[in-house]
Amino acid sequence: MLNKLIKEPLIHFLIISLIIFFIYDATNTTQIDSYNVIISEGRIEQLTNEILSVKSRLPVAKEIDIAIESFALNEIYLREARELGLHQGDKIIERRLRQKMEYLLDEMASIQQPNKDELNRFYQDNIDRYKTPLTYSFTQIYISIDRSKKQLTQHLKTQQQLIAQGNSPRADPSMLPQQVSHQSSQQIEHTFGELFIVELDELAVNTWSHPIDSGLGKHLVFIKEKIAPMVKPLLSIKEDVTSDWQYEQRKIFKQVYEDELMRRYNIEIHLPKVVETSV
Questions:
Q1: What's CA 94's distance to the chain center, in Å?
Q2: Residue 40, in any domain of the structure
Q3: Range of 28's domain?
Q4: What is the value of pTM for the model shown?
Q5: Which 3 state secondary structure label does DSSP give 186?
Q6: Residue 105 burial (10 A CB sphere; 0-12, 13-18, 19+)
Q7: Contact partners, residue 123, CB within 8 Å, separation at least 6
């Protein structure tokens, strides 16, 4: 029973939550009192670092004084606004508060690091993510379709005859590359279009193809090399897999947290009454 509880995501979330809030309470350097604003040494150090990051130098005494006064006034304005209830019903503030809550959840989840078994299991369960793309190397001969149907048919027949005689077909002028080396399907699609890559996938290696279409015209293609996707070793992409694992954990934590909130709160829905109109 204890082992089952330890493995529950909600238990992980609660433990991490307690750790973060404990750290926040221990390090929060601005004490809250209605009419008392304390600027601690830690806060001054933070303000100093902010100026340093912007100006690339340590601030002079006057700049620190201005930063402290600005921080104090900002704190006072915020407290006065809360006292007046100005934060209630404000969509911008509500959205920012939710964003901060979601950011906090992300931070909680990011604390976790997968152990070796968890990382390997995630890698195996999502192995298709970690394959190299299918790549091609080929020669393509562009055939313009800016001809009459009869002329196009005759031109294609001439190219096929050249191929049958062991010669290379002749390309029409084009900005398209004739030689393509070790490019992925996605890269090729960006150049030649979706229709081309669909037909390319069906072609045999080391032989001239029949005329295939693209949105730009027709093409005779000689595939020199077609390298199938291969799985990348875990050790070579460990950081990427860990990042993906943490992303999935963040989604789990968020869902668990939202489910828990929905369980704790009673939600009353008052639907508008339907007004019946007589015909």
A1: 25
A2: yes
A3: 2-124
A4: 0.54
A5: helix
A6: buried
A7: 130, 234, 241
